[in-house]
Amino acid sequence: MILPGKHLSPQRALIGVGAEILHQLDRPCDVSELWDRVCSDRTGREQAALGYDWFLLALTFLYSISAIDEADGLLTAGRGDK
């Protein structure tokens, strides 16, 4: 689930989805804006659609490893020093 494997492509693994999220998080934004940006990028690259639940799992994963931070309702890329 976190890492890609025999039955899970990198585009569906949480680490791969997390990488896409971090790529789109070049400036602070709220969850809905980030969701729109990730979906638009996936559509532009003709990748499989991403479910909102999987997106939230990836956000939770990134927050748990301090890769993203939240302040005043905005998400930012974390420094990972916590």
Task: Report the sheet-strand fraction.
Answer: 5-15%
Widest beta sheet: strand line-up: 1-2
What is the number of strand segments? 2
Overall helicity: 40-55%
Structural class: mainly alpha
CA-based gyration radius: 12 Å
Mean pLDDT: 88
Overall shape: it is globular
- What kind of sheet is the major sheet? 2 strands, antiparallel
Contiguous uncertain segments of 5+ residues: none
- CA-to-CA gap between the ends? 24 Å
Number of helical segments with 4 or more residues: 3
Order of helices and strands: HHHEE
Protein architecture, described:
This protein has 82 residues and is mostly helical. It is 46% helix and 10% strand. It is built from three helices and two strands. It has a two-stranded antiparallel sheet. The protein starts with 13 loop residues before the first helix and ends in a 5-residue tail after the last strand.
What are the SSEs and their pairings?
Blueprint: H1 14-24, H2 31-44, H3 52-64, E1 68-71, E2 74-77
Helix pairs in contact: 1-3
Keywords:
mainly alpha; two-stranded antiparallel sheet; 46% helix; globular
Short description:
By secondary structure, the chain is mostly helical. 46% of the residues lie in helices and 10% in strands.
